[in-house]
Amino acid sequence: MSKIDSFNFSGKKAIVRVDFNVPFNEKFEITDDTRIRAAVPTIQKILKDGGAAIIMSHLGRPKGKFNADFSLKHIQAHLSKTLGVDVIFAGDCVGAEVKAKADALKPGQILLLENLRFYLEEEGKPKLAEDATEEETKKAKAEMKEKQKTFSKELASLADVYVNDAFGTAHRAHASTAIIADYFDNDHKMFGYLIESELGSLVKVLEKPKRPFTAIMGGAKVSSKITIIENLLDKVDNLILGGGMTYTFIKARGGEVGDSICEPEFLDLAKSIEVKAAEKGVKLYLASDVVAADAFDNNANTKITASDAIPAGWQGLDAGPETVKTFTQVIENSGTILWNGPVGVFEMDAFAKGSRAVADAIVAGTKKGAFSLIGGGDSVACINKFGLAEEVSYISTAGGALLEYLEGKVLPGIKAIQG
Ligand code: AMP
Of the CATH numbers 3.40.50.1260, 3.10.50.40, 3.90.660.10, 3.40.630.30, which one belongs to the domain with range 209-406? Predict the structure, then answer.
């Protein structure tokens, strides 16, 4: 594979997979353009070298057919303004007209393809009748696999070079994120700057962490984080478990959790995680006290209780003051910090103090020289809400892809280029 920084795009056409799956308001105005801005360095590098960029992305879930609501045309003007360059809209992503537009592209120009997911081939999932037999299903899947290859090849034929800069979809083995790479030799496929920096920060954290390495896992449920927790047990020195999953662990220890969110079917698993942590010498931190409320409401009555003595009718919605002190001390003295998931219901101000303290401690730790990585939807929303995004080392743009990476899975979009 090539490296984007040392590659010379002069006279070349590069097809770039970006993640422009951005949110809109009812007037189709983009309400958060983070993902567009994240792709700018890669596109600018191609243009600056004297190359042309063919941009492709998905947008929403149009289920394999044209739907004007999901057209990338809604992004054309915003992209053009962000880059300060005219953007030509292709109207489709494959076909003779698109090919002609790509062929006519001059150095310095940008062609924006239409939503890839207007074709079922992008995701490669065939439409099946509800009563499809096993045989019919198998046949449809095999046919779709072939169609997906043809579609990928057609996309590849538009350009000389393939650049993947869509970390957010790197966990999908789709036509534009993975299969297309088969149609370029190693010297003509590479990651864009965004994927390079995402991977660089993940490697720093998971493969070469400065010790001690502390992971803070929060969020609502244990069930969605089990694989990550198990994978992290082999890597971290300290594991702070917060948020809703606290109560499954406390209950597993025999504590009273009142009406707190709890997953009784995961009690054994919580116990086994504690045992594994002890075996591996990982220090596991759980809340010792919590902010309990008599309703899931910002205006509910609250009181501080021990985390294992929450009365019936009360639920733990945030970390308590003693817990915050412990968490803060551990985080501030870390060499590497990974944060995924709030330690309380941070959306309600009454229960945001714990997550705010975690964010402050990460900032303090970072100032003292730690490398801090924050990722996974809610913790990013959290750090943004507190206005501290600039004060940490790296914020991941990805949701599902980051979680799968943290689970230790190989991401198809990464493998397709790295081999
Ligand atoms: P997740 O998507 O699993 O990371 O969960 C994030 C959500 O967990 C946020 O919306 C928080 O409000 C919620 N959460 C955090 N702590 C609690 C808690 N103690 N009880 C209920 N929900 C919580």
Answer: 3.40.50.1260
